[in-house]
Specification:
The chain folds into two domains: 12-238, Type I PLP-dependent aspartate aminotransferase-like (Major domain) (Aspartate Aminotransferase, domain 2), CATH 3.40.640.10; 239-357, Aspartate Aminotransferase, domain 1, CATH 3.90.1150.10. Helix content is 37%, strand content 14%. It is built from eleven helices and 13 strands. The strands form three sheets. A seven-stranded mixed β-sheet has the order 1-9-8-5-4-2-3, sandwiched between helices. Strands 7-6-11 form a three-stranded antiparallel β-sheet, with no helix packed on it. The protein has a three-stranded antiparallel β-sheet with strand order 10-12-13. Bound molecules: pyridoxal-5'-phosphate.
Length: 358
């Protein structure tokens, strides 16, 4: 079977040697040495001023919304994973959707200002598939209206924009280290910011507000990563360059071998160094998508409909229609993309797609 993605696992003995350190100390969580070491390695590798690693990629969104959303209206994208809008609703804020740019698939920055009201407290936008939002324009809008910017950068491990980590943009930026993401700890994630005051708020929030064993800095929750998760991150870390190089080869294969006459893929924003996290393919209609999906399924090849449905249509949400997002969501799949996908399999995938779309 060829799935949309396959988790890259480091050699088990390398993982075990990190686990041994947790065993030796009988220390499994609460920011043990493995967590501190991983956090430090990531901080240097990503070249960011502040990072807190967490138990998953959703809690950082909820923490940022708790601190900066303040129960207000949050301007957000309808084209993302459900975690983006669910976090807004979960934190008792109101999602206000703004449609996406049909080329980059990120929130359409030219439509944001029209959606701002006196109740707007923040923008939560996704760098979807690792493609940066129009961060410069969004920053100008946010400053002008005195609202915060939170980026769901779940897909962005290793991405740079204008030679800086994309995690540096916005007041807070988050990442997911879920097993299906580029860099993973099984479950895990991180939150990033650029100033000490925000870092304090994020950091204390993720550990019950603890300021030492008996004192509390403020309200908090438990979003701590465990040593078992951090061990996976440390074991995987040395393979990141290899993973990104191999994924680039698969991406290059699709780019050269697909017939784009009736197909489109993601347009990466200029000045971006991308991470090859997904290979989205946009068909001319949902009907074509379903025909291709059926043909690939018969060959045991399973692309995924990322992201479907458009989040403004989910049953616990009320929203205007978002024509661009709804149209793209109905016509887009992500193709198989992982280390070890053979050229024979890639050949089969592209041949089937080309046969049904050219
Ligand atoms: C994966 C993902 C998340 C959630 O991350 P978890 O680590 O699974 O909690 C949030 N937003 C987007 C866009 C994602 O793809």
């Amino acid at each position: 079977m060829i799935p949309v993605t396959k988790t890259f696992l480091p050699p088990q003995e390398e993982y075990n040697s990190y686990l041994q350190r947790a065993w030796d100390k009988a220390w499994l969580t609460n920011r043990g040495e493995l967590t501190l070491e991983l956090e430090d390695k990531l901080k240097n590798y990503l070249n960011v001023p502040y990072i807190t690693i967490t138990n998953n990629g959703t809690m950082p969104l909820q923490i940022a919304l708790k601190l900066f959303g303040k129960g207000g209206e949050i301007i957000t994208t309808p084209f993302s994973y459900v975690a983006t809008s669910a976090a807004i609703v979960w934190e008792n804020c109101t999602p206000v959707f703004v449609d996406i740019d049909p080329e980059h698939l990120t929130i359409d920055e030219t439509k944001i200002e029209a959606a701002i009201t006196p109740k707007t407290t923040a923008i939560l936008a996704t760098h979807v598939f690792g493609n940066p939002c129009a961060v410069t324009a969004i920053e100008v809008i946010a400053k002008k209206h005195n609202i915060k910017v939170i980026y769901d950068a779940a897909h962005c491990f290793g991405v740079t924009y204008n030679n800086e980590s994309v995690f540096k943009f916005g007041d807070v930026s988050t990442c997911s280290f879920h097993a299906t993401k580029l860099f993973h700890t099984g479950e895990g994630g991180a939150m990033f910011c650029n100033d000490e005051e925000t870092q304090h708020q994020l950091f204390y929030s993720h550990n019950f507000g603890h300021n030492g064993p008996l004192e509390f800095h403020g309200l908090g929750v438990n979003a701590k990563i465990s040593e078992l998760q951090s061990a996976m991150g440390l074991a995987l870390f040395p393979y990141m360059e290899h993973i990104i190089t191999e994924r680039k080869k698969v991406t290059d294969f699709y780019n050269t071998n697909l017939n784009f006459k009736n197909l489109k893929t993601l347009k990466i924003r200029e000045n971006t160094e991308w991470n090859y996290s997904y290979y989205p393919l946009i068909f001319d209609s949902e009907e074509t998508l379903l025909r291709v999906q059926e043909a690939l399924g018969k060959e045991n090849i399973f692309p995924r409909r990322y992201f479907y449905p458009s989040l403004n249509t989910i049953n616990y949400i009320s929203s205007n229609t978002m024509p661009v997002s709804e149209s793209i969501a109905s016509r887009i799949v992500c193709l198989p993309l992982y280390v070890g996908l053979s050229s024979e399999d890639l050949e089969r995938i592209t041949t089937i797609i080309n046969r049904l779309t050219s």
